[in-house]
């Protein structure tokens, strides 16, 4: 499936769009981390909680549960709210 | 801290050894900078930013190989990590397994590292060993040069320590900090650390077990000093040439501890009353255990934590805290409301000792004569979080 990567994470992927596989968001993130080591821990903590300001969208709809099932045709967007100062 | 060359190479030496060049490692809220000095410490050249936009809490050179840099970093939106450079900052690699708590049982909530706050290289006899302190309170160890990190459960998971570590309300506004991890230069298994808040602690078995050392320390009025949670060490330092002596800048005063005693002595009572003895950093002399420096801040009323009366000054004791002397030559004479954080003041090992400090207003100041005269060496940096000195391999 296609995964859209926000700019803060492109030091890992070197690309705005990458491919990853998985039957759930959790599995997709594990695959993404295999392909781009270190990426997952920057957006999901050691208790498997999404970090603050990180959001996942599947086909344009926000999902809050990492167990959300995915299909190979899904498009995943990782979004980071660039708040701050 | 590491030293600079004290003598130039002899002219008759066929292969003249170039004088060593000092290095300042500056961590800020928006990235890191390396300042490379000339041997006289008069001119400083900025190398950076490294990781612009990252919140860098600490940047440290491994004094054992003098090439490896470790950086504790996160961003406002990305989780915490550690970056490593084995070529003095020319290239960086991320730790394969940064400090992280174990996965908690289902429904237990579990702790997550918000940021790594403090890095300490291990004993000289243990190359590749590092310790990290985090927020919330956590102690981690690496045995492979900072590539992978493991939690130390003897502290992190000890039932009493879980209580003493307190909750978010017991820490600084930026979260509780485990800091001042100290390795006794005589014994790799002998460790100290501080928790803001949560007291000062000692381990004699490489971090497997710990015990508080809080006797003699004061706490905020009306609180019980017997309660470890209420103790707030800001910065603890060991004297390199007399490791039985420690100095501490605490939320409630300046202290000295001479082991084997376990009772801290408040040596800040002799500071001028209008200045007080509150501050963040504590700096020790590399050779003279009777000499130490502090940088006081206003701890009155609502705790502005700025230089008292807007007049920044370091204070030095040359007699282990019996008396203090103000050192402000070259510093602004007024209307300078500085805050110097606990990691943002450091000494080198030269003779005379060089002192360095960074302000939250983004200035870097240096003294080549143990604080007698200060010079601004950089302005317009982001908020400075930490300043370390180093003597890199050439």
**Overall pLDDT confidence of chain A:** 95
Reading off the top of the CATH hierarchy, the class of chain A is best stated as Alpha Beta
Order of helices and strands of chain B: EEEEEEEEEEEHHEEEEEEEEEEEEEEEEE
Low-pLDDT residue spans of chain B: 1-19
Which word captures the global form of chain B?
A: globular
Order of helices and strands of chain A: EHEHHEEE
Helix content class of chain A: 10-25%
What number is the mean pLDDT of chain B?
A: 93
Largest sheet report of chain A: 5 strands, mixed
Provide the number of structural domains of chain A. Answer: 1
Main β-sheet, spatial strand arrangement of chain A: 2-1-5-3-4
End-to-end CA span of chain B: 17 Å
Helix content of chain B: under 10%
- The secondary-structure class of chain A comes to alpha+beta
Total count of helical runs of at least 4 residues of chain B: 2
Tell me the radius of gyration of chain A: 12 Å
CA radius of gyration of chain B is: 20 Å
CATH class descriptor of chain B: Mainly Beta
Question: What is the CATH architecture term of chain A?
Answer: Roll
**Uncertain runs of chain A:** none
